[in-house]
Amino acid sequence: MRIVVKVGTSTLAHSTGRMNIFLVEELCKVLSDLKNIGHEVILVSSGAIGMGMGKLNIKKRPDDIPTKQAAAAVGQCELMYTYDRLFSQYNHTTAQVLVTGSDMKSEERHRNFENTLNRLLELDALPIINENDTVATDEIVIGDNDTLAAIVSVSVKADLLVLLSDIDGLYTADPRRDKNAVLLKRVENLTPEIMALGEGKGSSLGTGGMKTKLHAAEIATEKGIDMVIANGSDPLKLYDIVKGEDVGTRFIGKK
User: Fold this and answer.
1) Per-residue pLDDT of the chain (255 residues; tens, 9 = 90+)
2) Which of these, 244, 212, 232, 236, lies nearest to 7 by C-alpha position?
3) How far apart are CA 53 and CA 206, in angstroms?
4) d(Cα 240, Cα 228) in Å, to the nearest integer?
5) Is 139 helix (H, G, I), strand (E, B) or coil?
């Protein structure tokens, strides 16, 4: 199975912006084991800006582009160094791929992106992808890593897309405000009623929310790719998700 896993800033980092070391180590262990089983794995990882904020002692997420880009430049180093060190312990080779919106909009560059990813998988590498926040501007950003993960899934013809975040899945209402909110286990069709559930806000560190996740579901399921939204606090859940068990919310790809 070819699997794309996206992990959000709220999962990777504490509220201080500093890395959640225990969780990141557990995630790398599980992804390494999934590769050992025989699955192909691509990781789309947020966290560069958040971790850069931590290292630069920036307490509040910056509003201006230069500071965001500076934080991303610092944070990307720590992020990739950590991933490379941890995956190397389990004898897996990582590859960093940074992209911008213009890379996805250009037919030639998008084709080169697809060719590179497919060749990395053929070489048994584990691609780690992030939007290139260091050079992106408002005019050329993809916007969020949920959308990027869906684009990656379509580009490599993945079998499964998993979005790990700080939420359990898609609810009928905001569970923080409505005690009667029900977790939807399976979504067969992205109806207007389902799409209307995506009006929540993202985390204080990340940029996404349920709206971006539902947009990712639109992109992935339209191409026949199943997508799961699940809480990333326990990476061991990935085993059950890959087996097709009811964890989080599974959006069924159109066949």
Assistant:
1) 999 999 988 888 877 667 888 999 999 999 999 999 999 999 999 888 888 888 888 888 888 888 888 988 998 888 999 999 999 999 999 999 988 877 888 889 989 999 999 999 999 999 999 887 666 555 435 558 899 999 999 999 999 999 998 889 999 888 888 888 899 999 999 999 999 888 754 433 333 488 899 999 999 999 999 999 999 999 999 999 999 999 999 999 987
2) 232
3) 12
4) 11
5) coil
Q: What share of the chain is helix, strand, coil (3-state, %, to 5)?
A: 45, 20, 40
- Which residues make Cβ contacts (< 8 Å) with residue 103, sequence separation at least 6? 109, 110, 113
Structure tokens at 179: 């005690």
Sheet architecture: strand order including 160-165: 94-99, 126-131, 40-45, 2-7, 160-165, 226-231, 249-251, 186-187
**Structure token digits, residue 76:** 């990307």
Measured between alpha carbons, how far is 27 from 46 in angstroms, rounded to an integer? Answer: 14
